[in-house]
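Morning run. Coffee first, then this:
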Amino acid sequence: MALAGCLGGSGNGGSGGVSVPGIYDMSGATSDVGEPSAIGSRDAIKWINENDELDTTIDHEWQDYAYEVPQAKSAYDEYTSGSKPPAIVGWGTADTEALAPSVAQDNIAYISASYSAKLVTEESPYNFFGNLDYTSQARTLLKWISENDPDAKVGFIFSNTAFGKSPVEGGRQYAQSLGLDLADNINLSLTANSAQSQVRKAKNRNVDYLIHQNTAAPMQVLLSDKQDIYPDLNVMGLTYTVDEARVQESPELFEGVRYASGFKVFNEVMDSDAAGKQIIQDSFEREGRSMDDPSVANLNYVRGVIHGLMALKGLKNAKEVGNMSSGSDFREGMFQISDWNVRGLAEPFTYEEGDRRPTMSGRVYQVQDGAFEYDTTIDLPRKDEWIGL
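And here it is:
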């Protein structure tokens, strides 16, 4: 039975607030990254309510859908059975893509933690996310390779899921356009406890760089087996493959790994003067959490805070457009967002009616001595033909 909770009210405006429910993975195949992200969103919304950022409260009922599409649909049906919320904070690729027609029909803005390029097409007009799309994360790393090791052979490794496959086609096309040598694709399950056969395939195909689309748990497995079988292999990760908890647990495995994302890692935020830092500090103090606990004090928590701030921004702008409780006005309000750095947490976001990709700037990090070191930001062209690919 899915966990359920509530922050600030009934979740359907019963306390007089505005409803923005959540659908999170707290116990399923991506819960290693889903749980801290969910906590970050819930903390941010509680902070927003406590600090009177709106002239009403955000009612944030939430459910753990355990990364199961039917459970996500059930949660969605429950949240929309009465008066419909203007927005929902969601999670995975398969479930977000499955719900996209419903949210469009119901005029509900859907803020997801899936960065699938399919979610910014005309077929999914009510979907929004707060990161570089998955394919452009791969393009970021491919461009880095082309500029630093242009004769290298590159391969993609990913889970055989909608999430895993999302960046592969567009990424391979971009690699070819850069003149990079491409190897055949390799699959690695979200729940893998061994990657020996996958690493042997990479070795047999003389792959120099593997670009990995998965979560941090299978990334750790892949890096562990690489050490014994093919230590010269360079593994590069997209936004969910590396986090502070795994890096600190196994610094020797993650040493040298490069990682791409559109927002900042936890310690980078805490060492800055970003306005969003205050939300994190206050929330950790309120909840009695330790900044030294990487299971929550990690970049996925920052990801969740970004989702909470996106909800706040959409609601504020919806009020200016017309009605804060209207999903269509929330959607229109998102298009008022331009060059917004999410209180210092991310590369600047801009949303436009014809282009809901928030950013085309990828931040590249390298793991060194058990910590993230910022390397460079790679700016990609905003090509229309890349929308949805």
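The longest strand covers residues 371-379. Good start to the day.
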